[in-house]
Specification:
Number of helices: 15
Number of strands: 21
Oligomer: single chain
Radius of gyration: 36 Å
Length: 534
């Protein structure tokens, strides 16, 4: 194996080289009077030697890098690292910030060459952009799909002359429109006194086809702007749409492939929510947020035809009052397998209006399972059907200083039920009498309970009611996480067996049965003990 030359080897070579140079200069210049030509040739030779030595120094630096872990990275891995560096520097870029090229792109010659020759690293373009920089990004990107970010903050309030908007926004956008796969627009013509986005698109883009656009995020357009009537954008393959605009400003889009919508707005009434859904009948996923459900003025929910969403698999509507959610659920039809999440801000304030209990109770006959989880700041009720669909009601007080009211089991008991499974993760259960009234209408086969020991005792007492035993079809109880007395549980199991409605399975947590669960093994078919969660 050839060894790496030592420093002494290099020193010997340099010593000989330096001596020869010194001797040559002395012989040529000190012993005679050199002419101009000889001096020029000597200086040229010395410059060439300096250049050659610089190449040797660069060579040694390269060899040094190749010996380090960084130098042994593959081109593909370096390209991936550079991609993460780009995301880290530009992911949270504010509209007023300038697009930055990470310093890692010029870490060394190799990394710089890899960066320049990796089209995916130049696939994000921020507009407005200088023509020179735009051409650099365009040329280095090649033909890769593009992500484009447009904001009018950079040329609003006279930051950029109107005459330059074309060269820095619309002309580049026109050129690359067919290659854009991801388009984000933050447009606030009210704050920055610029032409509306809809007007700009009508005037400069027209029906130019965005043939690769799959994701479109539009926010900030002002509904009061006089020239903001919806434009038409040609988006034949659009799949995901994210909007933070007034419904009257939403551009007309090609919707045949649109499957996902995120919509955020202020002051939406329930009929307006239905209007938005009507615009996108083929959605599979939809999330809608109303930052202020009260609106500018109160408006009654008028009756109207049901909006049918045949493909919807996930629908989330956040921050509505109970009255609004009740109206929306009555006017939106989705497949039985769909998941619907309706975030509640409490009752609307009407004394005779719907309540959380009426919202849940009136729908218990259509579902198989009810899950109620309550903490000091949040109550979440979930109804689940046998087909896998669910209806979730996360519920919290709008006023953070106002305590959350507990759910009324007595009110739930007044509704017909087809529930076969319930799960209660709740600090305290109501009285035994109210529990009996709540449990009796449901053909329950399974109960999951996580509560204090005293509340579990009330549940067992309710299930021991005579003469007509409550929940005669009950097969299993899961009380993991809840402490209990072995003697109390043994009496309960014996009672159910005596009445001919024996429990088949009991699931508990190791260490929470006092003193232990050994006495329960002989009186139940299946005793499942799980370790306590850390």
């Amino acid at each position: 194996m050839t060894r790496i030359p030592s420093v002494s080897d290099l020193s010997d070579v340099c010593t000989v080289f330096e001596r020869n140079v010194t001797d040559g200069i002395q012989i040529q210049f000190l012993g005679a009077n050199p002419d101009h030509k000889q001096r020029g040739e000597a200086q040229k030779a010395l410059q060439q030697m300096q250049a050659r030595l610089r190449r040797s120094i660069y060579f040694l630096k390269q060899r040094h890098n190749s010996c380090s872990p960084l130098g042994r990275l593959t081109d593909e891995l370096i390209s991936r690292i550079l991609q993460y560096c780009f995301w880290g520097d530009n992911q949270f870029l504010e509209p007023s910030d300038r697009f930055t090229i990470p310093s890692a792109f010029s870490l060394c010659a190799r990394w710089r060459n890899i960066a320049i020759s990796s089209p995916s690293l130049w696939s994000t373009i921020y507009l407005p952009c200088s023509p020179t920089f735009f051409k650099l990004l365009r040329d280095r990107n090649g033909s890769s799909p593009l992500s484009v970010f447009i904001s009018n903050e950079m040329f609003g309030t006279n930051k950029l002359a109107v005459s330059r908007i074309g060269s820095r926004v619309t002309e580049p956008l026109n050129e690359i429109a067919p290659r854009i796969c991801d388009l984000t627009v933050q447009w606030d013509e009210w704050s920055y006194e610029t032409q509306s986005f809809n007007s700009l698109m009508r005037q400069h883009i027209g029906l130019k086809e965005f043939s690769a656009l799959q994701f479109f995020d539009l926010s900030g357009t002002d509904r009061h702007c006089p020239d903001n009537a919806p434009c038409t954008l040609n988006t034949p393959v659009l799949r995901t749409l994210k909007l933070y605009v007034d419904i009257s400003n939403i551009p007309q889009l090609s919707l045949q492939h649109l499957v996902s919508l995120e919509y955020e707005c202020w002051f939406m009434t329930p009929p307006q929510i239905l209007d938005v859904l009507t615009l996108f009948p083929a959605l599979e996923r939809c999330s809608m947020i109303d930052d202020d459900p009260e609106g500018e003025e109160e408006e009654d929910n008028v009756d109207r035809p049901v909006v049918v969403m045949n493909r919807m698999q996930f629908l989330s509507i956040k921050f509505r009052f109970v009255k609004d959610v009740d109206y929306l659920l009555d006017h939106i039809e989705t497949p039985a397998t769909a998941t619907k999440v309706m975030n509640l801000w409490g009752p609307s304030g009407e004394e005779d209006g719907p309540t959380l209990e009426s919202l849940i109770g009136s729908r218990m006959s259509s579902y198989d399972e009810l899950r109620i989880v309550q903490t000091p700041r949040l109550l979440e009720a979930t109804l689940t059907s046998k087909s896998g669909g669910s209806l979730q009601f996360p519920h919290g007080p709008r006023d953070s200083d106002r305590p959350l009211e507990t759910i009324s089991f007595s009110a739930l008991a007044s509704y017909p039920s087809s529930l076969s499974r319930i799960e209660l993760v709740i600090p305290a259960l109501p009285s035994t009498t109210r529990l009996i009234a709540f449990l009796r209408p449901s053909p329950l086969v399974h109960i999951r309970i996580h509560t204090h020991e005293s509340s579990l005792g009330r549940l067992l007492t309710a299930l021991e009611y005579t003469p007509d035993v409550v929940c005669p079809h009950l097969e299993s109880i899961d009380c993991t996480g809840t402490p209990f007395s072995a003697a109390r549980m043994r009496n309960f199991l014996n009672f159910r067996e005596t009445k001919g409605v024996a429990l088949r399975e009991l699931k508990i947590t190791k260490g929470l049965c006092d003193p232990d669960a050994s006495s329960l093994v002989s009186i139940i078919e299946s005793l499942v003990e799980v370790d306590e969660e850390s």
